[in-house]
Recover the amino acids of this structure.
């Protein structure tokens, strides 16, 4: 089998955010299903856009290798491939089997279209709720970027955290790293700016009184 991993930003690629978890999931799947790993391809690129495949040379290379070896491509989760139904359909037309580790080895290709459609719908709904939450926060004067935290800004910081609470609720059940990846993908700046990581997610969750026992 050929393993394919994807992270969405250069910072995540350098830090390994999400990459280690993907590799571990694929390796567990390979061991459980007695697959031999013949190669790994790592992409640092967004999954969005109609030209996504053109901007993902590692995926194209994985497809070529899989065809040559007559092997399937295994990914940890479907969203590491894409949440876009049209993109998934285009990949299915490549005549290379794709296996999603978290779904198991026997999922029919047609079902991948269904799962992709559900993921696309979920992404759209979460995006809409995120925008509404951020708009409501901005209407209250909340600064969501990188405010200086001091006596005069304590209330603003608390409001900023409160604006994030419904978003964290939407991501309940995911690991801290997965939440950090999702927040960064949506363009939401971390409390001190830049990309999120497991630690910043945990700090916000604790300030909000949200119990987070998920693995980093």
């Amino acid at each position: 089998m050929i393993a394919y991993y994807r992270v969405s930003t250069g910072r995540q690629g350098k830090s390994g955010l999400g990459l280690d978890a993907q590799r571990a999931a694929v390796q567990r799947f390979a061991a459980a299903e007695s697959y031999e790993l013949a190669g790994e391809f790592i992409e640092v690129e967004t999954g969005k856009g109609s030209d996504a495949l053109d901007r993902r040379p590692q995926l194209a290379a994985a497809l070529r290798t899989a065809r040559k070896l007559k092997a399937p491509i295994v990914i940890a989760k479907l969203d590491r491939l894409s949440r876009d139904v049209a993109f998934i359909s285009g990949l299915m037309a490549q005549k290379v089997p794709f296996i999603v580790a978290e779904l198991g080895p026997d999922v029919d290709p047609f079902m991948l279209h269904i799962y992709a459609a559900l993921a696309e719908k979920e992404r759209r709904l979460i995006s809409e709720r995120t925008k509404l939450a951020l708009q409501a926060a901005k209407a209250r004067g909340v600064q969501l970027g990188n405010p200086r935290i001091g006596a005069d800004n304590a209330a603003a910081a608390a409001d900023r955290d409160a604006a994030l609470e419904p978003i964290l609720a939407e991501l309940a059940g995911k690991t801290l790293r997965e939440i950090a990846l999702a927040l960064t993908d949506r363009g939401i700046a971390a409390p001190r700016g830049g990309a999120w990581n497991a630690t910043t997610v945990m700090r916000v969750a604790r300030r909000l009184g949200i119990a987070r026992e998920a693995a980093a």
